C-alpha cells in the first residue's frame, strides 16, 4: 500500500524536529533520574554535587530551549517558503 505525500497541514517528523524534541526532553530526563545525582561528592566551591548539578541544569535547560526555539523558527520559515513556492 503506497502512502500519499503529507499535505502542508499534516505533522511531519523531520531530523530538525527530532533534535528539537531531544533538546526539550533532555532536562526532564536529567532531573527525573535522581539516582544519577543524589550524592554529595564532588563538591564545587563547597557546594554539594546534588545542588550544583541542579543549578547547572538551569543554565543548560535555558540554552537547550533557546536552541530548540531557533531551530523551530528556521523550520517554520522553511515550511512557509516551500508552501509559498508551490502556491
From TrEMBL:
UniProt KW Aminoacyl-tRNA synthetase keyword: no
Pfam family membership, one: DUF3311
Superkingdom assignment: Bacteria
Keywords carried by this UniProt record: Membrane, Transmembrane, Transmembrane helix
Keyword Transmembrane helix: yes
InterPro entries: DUF3311
Regions crossing the membrane: 12-38, 50-72
Coiled coil: none
UniProt cross-references to PANTHER family, sorted A to Z: BSL5891 PROTEIN (PTHR40034:SF1)
Protein name: DUF3311 domain-containing protein
Organism the protein comes from: Streptomyces cadmiisoli
Lineage of the species this protein comes from: Bacteria, Bacillati, Actinomycetota, Actinomycetes, Kitasatosporales
Amino acid at each position: 500500500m503506497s502512502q500519499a505525500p503529507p499535505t502542508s497541514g499534516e505533522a511531519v517528523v523531520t531530523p530538525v524536529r527530532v533534535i528539537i524534541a531531544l533538546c526539550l526532553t533532555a532536562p526532564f530526563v536529567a532531573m527525573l533520574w535522581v539516582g544519577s545525582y543524589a550524592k554529595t561528592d564532588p563538591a564545587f566551591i563547597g557546594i554539594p554535587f546534588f545542588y550544583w548539578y541542579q543549578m547547572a541544569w538551569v543554565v543548560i535547560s535555558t540554552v537547550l530551549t533557546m536552541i530548540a526555539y531557533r531551530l523551530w523558527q528556521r523550520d517554520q520559515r522553511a515550511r512557509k517558503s516551500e508552501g509559498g513556492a508551490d502556491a
